[in-house]
Design brief:
88 residues, alpha+beta, Dodecin subunit-like, four-stranded mixed beta sheet, 3 helices, elongated, BhsA/McbA_stress_biofilm_assoc, YdgH/BhsA/McbA-like domain-containing protein, signal
Length: 88
């Protein structure tokens, strides 16, 4: 739970610092509001830092052809695993 809170806080604080990626993190509510099409999921498990996890997810979403992504899970003890839905 604490890891999820850390990931959420990192996402809020670092929104501007990851603007170099085409894929942008949004909320699930925003995805529904915008009526976006989900094109798949991406995940990462190669990092210990929530900020790095967000960066990896954004890059993978971009590579998959997505414009947006929603982080749906984050967990780990000594090794972080995060999953995101990708939308276009």
């Amino acid at each position: 739970m604490k890891l999820l809170q850390s990931l959420t806080a990192a996402a809020i604080i670092s929104t501007l610092s990851f603007s170099v990626f085409a894929a942008q993190e949004i909320s699930r509510e925003k995805a529904k509001e915008m009526k976006l099409e989900m094109i798949g999921t991406v995940d990462t498990n190669s990092t210990l830092d929530p900020m790095d996890a967000k960066q990896h997810l954004a890059k993978k979403a971009d590579e998959k052809g997505g414009k947006y992504y929603v982080i749906i899970a984050a967990a780990g003890k000594g090794h972080l695993h995060a999953t995101a839905e990708v939308y276009k």
